[in-house]
Amino acid sequence: MLASDLSLARSAPWRDKLSLLLESTGDGMCGIDLEGRCIFANRAAGRLLGREPEAMLGCNMHALMHHTHADGSHYCIDDCPIFRAFWQGQACRIDSEVLWRVDGSSFPAEYSSYPIVEDGAVCGAVVTFVDISDRKRAEALLRETNADLERRVADRTRELTEALAQLRELSAHAHAVREDERTRIAREIHDELGSLLVALKLDVDWMARRVTTEPLQHKCRSMGGLIDGAVDEVGRIITDLRPSLLDHQGLLAALEWQFQEFAGATDLACDWHLSLEPGTSIDDNDACATAVFRIFQEVLSNIARHARAQCVGVEVKGSAQGLRIVVSDDGVGAAGTAFAAPRAYGVRGMRERARHFGGDVEISSAPGAGTRVVLTVPWTPAT
């Protein structure tokens, strides 16, 4: 036996095993020569394309299965990635195109094309392809599910946003009603109780001038002192209900007065700084000014109750855009999470009140490092 015959005999079993491997795989496989003609195809390729493998031999594979795009437009052979495998020696893997059956139907496919190289030269390509219809349906279902989920999330977010807006409107209305009621009560106390106390004081003074005995004069003086104390207390109550400075002298004067009252009551080292840029215009009579004053009151009240501070500084800066108030102390401070706790009703109330007018309250603090509260409010309310 010649050496060449022996080599051929030895290679025959390997050819059989290669054929068995090609036939056993579920992926369609075919080989094409430099002219684009089919030189072999397995049964899976024939099943996917609706042809007998033998009928595919010698056929141009682009014209056979890759001639048209999914939208029905012509697929030029010069653009075919399969053929580029042997024209340019470029391997490819594509999963965004369709292949065509003999009956004119198409299916989404994932295909790969790799050049066949012999003696350093490309002599063809091996093409592997598989029907990915199930995968595409699953991807489409997933996209549809995600789109539906996004729509539902968007709808829910819109509902929550609308509910939050309504809640803020309700909160703002409640604050407005409360301020109106405070103003009404303060006015009635001033007009009714104040006038009664003044009248009583006049009567006691009249009586003191007419009695001659020392015990009665002493009693009149004592009654007069009690009436003076009652007048002072009524004035304090009226001021707590609705500071007259806010209505008659404006927001900035009311803020400075409140800070002076705080300094006098706490005996802390207090620093007040006010700066107004050119073009600053403050509307002292609207609900926004009242909200700013009440937030400022709440901040000072929190310092008095919780901070254990030695020094408190306030910086008020007005501009054409809005108002910025910074209140800082050197007290015990707190962790940042304390101001975001669900039960931090005071902080939440201040923030919601500011946000109703387009503003915000920012708090920075750390244990042992004091607290800094920044209130910013634009002049144009955001309703």
Automatic annotation (TrEMBL):
<keyword id="KW-0418">Kinase</keyword>
<dbReference type="Pfam" id="PF02518">
    <property type="entry name" value="HATPase_c"/>
</dbReference>
<dbReference type="InterPro" id="IPR003594">
    <property type="entry name" value="HATPase_dom"/>
</dbReference>
<dbReference type="InterPro" id="IPR036890">
    <property type="entry name" value="HATPase_C_sf"/>
</dbReference>
<protein>
    <submittedName>
        <fullName>PAS domain S-box protein</fullName>
    </submittedName>
</protein>
<feature type="domain" description="PAC">
    <location>
        <begin position="92"/>
        <end position="144"/>
    </location>
</feature>
<keyword id="KW-0808">Transferase</keyword>
<dbReference type="GO" id="GO:0006355">
    <property type="term" value="P:regulation of DNA-templated transcription"/>
</dbReference>
<dbReference type="GO" id="GO:0000155">
    <property type="term" value="F:phosphorelay sensor kinase activity"/>
</dbReference>
<dbReference type="InterPro" id="IPR013767">
    <property type="entry name" value="PAS_fold"/>
</dbReference>
<dbReference type="InterPro" id="IPR050482">
    <property type="entry name" value="Sensor_HK_TwoCompSys"/>
</dbReference>
<dbReference type="GO" id="GO:0016020">
    <property type="term" value="C:membrane"/>
</dbReference>
<dbReference type="InterPro" id="IPR035965">
    <property type="entry name" value="PAS-like_dom_sf"/>
</dbReference>
<dbReference type="GO" id="GO:0046983">
    <property type="term" value="F:protein dimerization activity"/>
</dbReference>
<dbReference type="InterPro" id="IPR000700">
    <property type="entry name" value="PAS-assoc_C"/>
</dbReference>
<dbReference type="InterPro" id="IPR000014">
    <property type="entry name" value="PAS"/>
</dbReference>
<dbReference type="Pfam" id="PF00989">
    <property type="entry name" value="PAS"/>
</dbReference>
<dbReference type="Pfam" id="PF07730">
    <property type="entry name" value="HisKA_3"/>
</dbReference>
<dbReference type="InterPro" id="IPR011712">
    <property type="entry name" value="Sig_transdc_His_kin_sub3_dim/P"/>
</dbReference>
<feature type="domain" description="PAS">
    <location>
        <begin position="14"/>
        <end position="71"/>
    </location>
</feature>
<keyword id="KW-0902">Two-component regulatory system</keyword>
